[in-house]
Amino acid sequence: LSLALCASSLCAASGAAFRYHDYCVIGAGPSGLQMAYFLQQAGRNYVVFERSHAPGSFFALYPRHRKLISINKQYTGKSNSEFNLRHDWNSLLSHDRRLLFRHYSRDFFPNADVMVRYLEDFASLLKLQVQYNTAIVHVTLERDEQAWNGHYFLLTDQDRQNYKCSSLLVATGTWVPNVVNFPGSEYVEGYETVSTNPEDFAGQTVLILGRGNSAFETAENILGVTNFIHMVSRSRVRLSWATHYVGDLRAINNGLLDTYQLKSLDGLLEGELEDLAIVKDKKGKLHITLRFYLENRNTSAGFDSITLPQDELDNFATRAPYDRVIRCLGWKFDFSIYNRSLRMMPGKGNEKKYPQIKPSYESKGTRGLFVLGTASHSVDFRKSAGGFIHGFRYTTRAVHRLLENRHHGVPWPSTVYPITQLTNSIIKRVNEASGLYQMFGVLADIILLRENATAFEYLEEYPVGVLAELETQTGRKAPNGLFVIIMEYGRNFSGADKDVFYYNRAVGEAQHAWQSNFLHPVIYYYRHLPTEREMKLRPQDWPLPRPDAIHHIVEDFLTDWTAPNAHILPLRRFLENCLSTDLRNFFAESCFLFIFTRQKLPPFCGQGYVRMQGLVGSQGLQRHAVAAGLLEDYTPSDFLGDRAPDSHDGSQDQLLRDHVIAIRPLQHLVNAKDE
């Protein structure tokens, strides 16, 4: 009878009507809402499933002590909205200026409750298609050759309602607490439930398991009321200012480091948590011992029969009993709802808390399944900001652009410019682009050269991990070579053991730009699009294969790469060497002379002067050019001498002999025009 009932229920479920959508997004957190925005702007058929009654349910609980560590910088001294996003780590991308986080909080480190309210407004003001109180409990595949990816995704919610989707976008984040099981782990309190009232810890001795921001956040909250706090983890502390990874320990939470190093009772220890054991004495105190001490113990014996490490080593570091032990080990991805047919597998090593995905953010096991947001952080774990809002808002946009090309034939957005604008285009982007800046080493601008290098096509913020697939992923062609613009730190400047404050840590001269340590632009030049094999064989820690030429723009203390001599001139000469052309800008007089004296005109003259384009001459412009040293001060008499105006004998020779051609970068021309 049970088997019959079970079969009956399965048949009923399989026969139930499916609600179809082209795109199904699981999770209405920041990344899910960000993807919903792009899908809605493109007019696609989509739905977002959210198990809670409101978006951003993770932030309704975490961080437990309510202070976010994502900065909310109100002032930058600039009005450029794209530049300002470099220092706004909380806003999602949209066309609505009301949905900038600075309108919600003025705190540098905002309260998490404000984030919840912000996400609610983002979903409601933009009228995103979010289906609340819908927990997806099972996901499987249905093979169909007519489907986009050769199969449909079948989703079932808690009420056994079924949904069918052509593409599945997983934006659930990592929310399952990491738990280490060892003898006595039942005495451990979890970060997700521990009290946040410091008075509950008054006069107590506390052991914290973990060494991330949640562990130090918990310690910071009770630092002033406890007897002492010890913190145990398998690895040494990783300071974000040394690793340049925002997920490592931030200064706002590191008060325990002070009290440890200044010998105020608190302390940090390293050890494998799996090797520990906790035993409780008759007074309710918790003692730390090692697992192997308990392996041959009679389980019916009392506490007094247990061997503790201090019985053999009387100065054992954790010999003092603890009142409480708190687990703060972070979170992992929930794999439980995915059927085996999807082959959603955890990563390896430090990335086992994330699902395995490609650099395109598509699952390695199933075509058409993309992972967004924090859960996609395996692509750049401890390398860039892809696990945080200020990083995955850009990677989510990149995934949307890949989907638009794959399923709807919409190529990656691009702009075509004449080659004379190459230097200016690069300088503009490296000085204001927020996606390049936040997702350094992961997203890059791509410049595709046209035939004979007369023009170029500019693509913004493409994932460099799939550079070899650029033509198929973007719908753009790269037959004539390309430049890749990316932001990087120095090769040996980041690490838990690095001293990032040593003398002479910064480089100031352009000729030493390749030794720059701080974040700076790097331009790679390839005569041909790199292959898959070249991508796999690239040097360790290099984001790209070895290029035909490479150029570092020297680091800048103000992150302002507009200095004519230090930044622009070396870049222009690098580009000229790669393209075997002259990218300088000229006055009309110089172009006029080149027509008579050169076989090949510089692009600026060929695309401007010859086509009757460029600056219109005037006496005011001439006076300014002379005063600035851009042109020689000459008059018609300088060229004609004592000859009559209609005498042309030797005039060209005289012109070439006396007229010194002045050449300056474009910004001087613009200044001259403005003057």
From TrEMBL:
Interacts with SEL1L. May interact with OS9 and DNAJC10. Interacts with TXNDC16. GO terms for molecular function: flavin adenine dinucleotide binding; monooxygenase activity. Keywords: Endoplasmic reticulum, FAD, Flavoprotein, Glycoprotein, Oxidoreductase, Signal. Residues 1-17 form the signal peptide. The gene is Foxred2. This is FAD-dependent oxidoreductase domain-containing protein 2. GO terms for biological process: ERAD pathway. GO terms for cellular component: endoplasmic reticulum lumen. Pfam families: Pyr_redox_3. Belongs to the FOXRED2 family. Its cofactor is FAD. The keyword Signal applies. Probable flavoprotein which may function in endoplasmic reticulum associated degradation (ERAD). May bind non-native proteins in the endoplasmic reticulum and target them to the ubiquitination machinery for subsequent degradation.
